[in-house]
Structure formats: C-alpha cells, structure tokens
Amino acid sequence: MENKFDLPTIIAAVVVAGYAAIMLEYVAHEDLGFSTTQIRHVAMIAAVLAGIWVAMDMLRSNPDEVE
After folding, report:
1. Which one, 5, 43, 54, 65, has the greatest CB density within 10 A?
2. 30: Cα separation from own chain's centroid
3. Gyration radius from the chain CA atoms
4. In this structure, what DSSP letter does residue 49 have?
C-alpha cells in the first residue's frame, strides 16, 4: 500500500484546520472570556511545541528509512 498524499487531500486538511482554529478562537474569546493576547500567546506556544515535535521526529529517523 502506497502512502501518498494528493493535492486535494492537503487542501482539505488545511481548510478544515483553519476552520477549526477560527471556531476555537471564537469559543475562547466569546464564551470563555479570554483576551486576544492570551489566545495569541497560547497559540504561539502550541505552534512551537508542535514544530519541535515534528522536527524531533524528522531528525531522529534515518534519512534512508523515512516512510
């Protein structure tokens, strides 16, 4: 079985992730009462942690054995 992403799958994933981020921001701001600055700080921390996780996963694996 070939593990390959095509362009429509990537576009759909980005659109769904963006929509989910907008909805989470709305709930955090309107319903939970967080300020825009608080939301921005948490989003930046989450993005950095996700980036570190992806980078560690890529650096840990052998380039010849990447799936």
Report:
1. 43
2. 22
3. 17
4. H
